[in-house]
Write a structure and sequence with these properties.
Helix content is 44%, strand content 20%. The protein is of the alpha/beta class. Helix 6 crosses helix 8.
Length: 225
């Protein structure tokens, strides 16, 4: 369940927003002062923040400025200030969206969903690692070789991810077994051999002319440079 943090000093508005978001299926927490909000943000992670500007003790723009030194969580400012220059300044500080009071609950709901969707999509894009014509999305666990999506078992996926994230490093069968199976190696290397063979076959089928996994005799496996 996605977590949303509402920072709004008006009790009535805070309660209305919280109830609407709970009804939408989100987990919600509220803060009513800037000091309370800043303490919470330093100890807990959220998927999105609704932020008022006029807050007691610490203003919303100060919270936003400090927040951006340690988090890229989406922030939607909700404020009675509707001057263009105010919106521009807050967007420059790191706000992702801006809603002017009085607001429509349907609009808030739509903007929350839109910002969460965009942020999650960007995370997926940034979590892509590449090697030759292989592309791995570490968020979706999708592996594409030569434009073909591979149907890998969980262990096969973990092996190719391990090798790509450590390009050039040689992994012994013991290293691979203990890294992937999370168990102590007891001398039977058939599990590693079988998964490695199956992984190589699937890569070969997708891209017959490429060489990916090199056997370093007496040592283990690594990716060709």
């Amino acid at each position: 369940m996605q977590k949303i943090f509402i920072i709004e000093d008006s009790k009535d508005i805070n309660i209305i927003l919280a109830q609407m978001l709970k009804d939408e299926g989100y987990e919600v927490k509220s803060a009513f002062t800037g000091l309370e909000a800043m303490t919470e943000l330093k100890s807990e992670k959220y998927d999105l923040i609704l932020l008022d500007i006029m807050l007691p003790y610490i203003s919303g723009d100060q919270i936003l400025k400090e927040l951006r030194t340690f988090s890229d969580v989406p922030v939607i400012v909700i404020s009675a200030k509707d001057m263009v220059v105010t919106k521009i300044d807050l967007l420059k500080l790191g706000a992702d969206d801006y809603i002017t009071k009085p607001f429509d609950l349907g609009e808030v709901s739509a903007r929350v969903a839109s910002n969460l969707r965009r942020f999650n999509k960007n995370k997926e894009i940034y979590n892509v690692i590449n090697y030759k014509d292989i592309s791995i999305n570490t968020s979706t666990k999708q592996v594409i070789a030569n434009g073909v999506e591979l149907e890998l078992t969980a262990k096969e996926y973990l092996i190719i991810e391990l090798l790509i994230q450590n390009l050039g490093k040689v992994f012994s069968k013991v290293n691979i077994y203990e890294s992937i199976w999370k168990e102590e190696y007891i001398g039977d290397d058939n599990a590693v051999k079988t998964h490695m063979s199956n992984l190589r076959s699937k890569l070969k089928k997708a891209s017959p002319d490429q060489q990916y996994i090199e056997t370093v005799w007496g040592l283990g496996y690594r990716l060709y440079k």
